[in-house]
Amino acid sequence: MIRTTCEYCDAELRRAGLGRPQRFCSGRCRVAAHRKKRAGEAVPAEIRGQKRWIRHGADKTPLRADTGRAASSTDPRTWTDHGTAARSPHGAGLGFVLNGDGIVCVDLDHCLTADGQLAPWAAAILNACPPTYTEVSPSGTGLHLWGHGHVVRGRRIRREDGAHIEVYGTGRYIALGRRYGQAPAELADISEVITSLTT
Q1: Where along the chain is composition biased (Basic and acidic residues) (predicted)?
Q2: What is the per-residue pLDDT for 32?
Q3: I want to staple 177 with a disulfide (CB 3.0 to 4.6 A). Which of 7, 29, 55, 135 is the partner?
Q4: Does residue 166 have an active-site annotation?
């Protein structure tokens, strides 16, 4: 079947059906899709080995890797292994589902400038955190701190400057980005950081 929309942004392909099969509407989308497919390569084996992977659309809608249809962060039947999700042609990137087993994610929203400078408030959180897998969010403006901890209910903390800090441990999926700097490919216990943010 001839593809008629861009694999990355779902925009209509102008030259669909003419000559060599077209997958992307622009070089920009091709590069972005390539970067997102590679996003999971530096992910710690502890996460990569779980069968809790999905895809996500350009609008962050969770998608099944096998069909491209809607996935659910609470229905394991819609998840798959990392390899299958990484090879899937559906959506714009990888997502990992948090299911309450102790793997958690702290999302520091809008903490990176366009030139990669980290906001002081985010640097303070990062410095208080033991070395753990950290990635730049797909938007390029935030950080995800991955680790071990106990989070019963997700929290969203709004800062006075408009930035957000989100803490999740279950019932959510996280869209993967790319490794931040030289962050280790392992998860640390970040319970103390979580406690400091949520109390």
Answers
A1: 56-67
A2: 64
A3: 135
A4: yes
